[in-house]
Design goal:
By secondary structure, this protein is of the alpha+beta class. 19% of the residues lie in helices and 22% in strands. It has helices at 3-9, 15-23, 115-122, 144-149, 186-193, 225-230, and strands at 27-28, 47-48, 51-52, 60-65, 96-97, 106-112, 130-136, 166-169, 174-179, 198-206, 209-210, 220-222.
Length: 237
């Protein structure tokens, strides 16, 4: 792929804009030698204003979503796209969230420009379990584990029972919930059905991929090959 198209696809500007800054000498190799717009250098050797380029497609990133952010670029207010470099909004192909988190739910969300991978992760046959840390308004009463694991719980306004979900009690008002599916506001509605109210909800893992302790809220980074493979493995015990 020629340099102009490569940089335009990465969101650095339109083709005309990219041509201008290439001609101005803003794009160089790793030694600082300016590159021509029709050159096809090795990706890792290209520099834009002295910096390495953003990762190429296919790209998979993890975001530690803060409270108050939505997962669609069409939603009003702050979105997870505001947490990324502005030029990411102009990448081709574009980045999309792999599933969604509610506005008031925090934690791990994946984004990718690989449509096949996105559908593989969210497809029920992939069995990518999601684990959530829950903080409740009132103490657990003891019946919730059996209710969630029964496979008979029907949420309000629905007719199809939920798949069995695992509940691990951490404290009087703290628990981990592991889901096999992702219905609308599912965890909150499950606890509402059990007579409680969720105060805080954080997704901490997808499959065997756990949100890293060193990824602060509002930050993102590219997944390694090992981390991507972990998405399709079982959560850590």
């Amino acid at each position: 792929m020629k340099l102009v198209k490569l940089l335009a696809n990465l969101g650095y500007g339109s083709r005309k804009e990219v041509q201008k800054f290439i001609r101005a000498g803003s794009v160089t190799d790793e030694t600082g030698v300016p590159l021509g717009e029709n050159e096809v250098p090795a990706f890792e050797k290209i520099r834009y204003r002295g910096e390495e380029l953003d990762p190429p497609a296919p790209l998979v990133i993890m975001v530690n979503k803060p409270d108050g952010y939505t997962c669609s670029s069409e939603d009003p207010g702050e979105t997870i796209y505001d947490l990324l470099p502005p030029r990411f909004a102009h990448r081709n192909p574009g980045l999309n969230p792999v599933g969604r988190l509610d506005k008031d739910t925090t934690g791990l969300i994946l984004m990718t420009d690989d449509g096949k991978l996105l559908h593989k992760i969210i497809h029920p046959k992939s069995n990518c379990l999601k684990v959530y840390h829950v903080t409740l308004d009132r103490p657990l009463e003891g019946h919730e584990t059996e209710l969630f694991e029964s496979g008979t719980l029907v949420l309000n306004s629905e007719t199809r029972p939920l798949l069995p979900a695992k509940l691990e009690v951490l404290g009087e008002k703290q628990a981990l919930v592991t889901l096999h599916e992702g219905r609308y506001h599912q965890v909150r509605r499950m606890f509402a059905a059990a007579g409680n109210h969720v105060l805080e909800l954080k997704r901490i893992s997808i499959g065997g991929l756990t949100l890293p302790d060193d990824l602060p809220e509002g930050e993102w980074r590219q997944l390694t090959e090992e981390e991507l493979a972990a998405v399709f493995s079982e959560p850590a015990a």
